[in-house]
Amino acid sequence: MPYKEKGMWRAKVTRDGRRYTCLKETKGEALDWESEKRKELKESSKTDTAYLFEVVLGYLDYAKEQYSHSTYTDKKKTLEELMALTGNVAIEQISPAEILGGLILTKKTHNLANKRRKDLHAFFEHCRKFHGLARNPITDIAKFPQERKAQPVPTDTELAKLLLVAGGRQDRNMLVAFANSGARRSELFRCKFSEDVDFAERMLRLGNRKNRAREMRYRFVPMNDALNDALQDQFRHRLPDSDYVFQVRAEWVDRDGNVTRRHPKWGDRFTARRRYMKGLCKQAKVKAMGFHSLRRYFASKLVENGEDLETVRYLLGHATVSTTDRYVYRLRADMNTIRAAVHAIQKPKGTEKGTKERDIEL
Question: What's the CATH number for 156-289?
Answer without folding.
Answer: 1.10.443.10
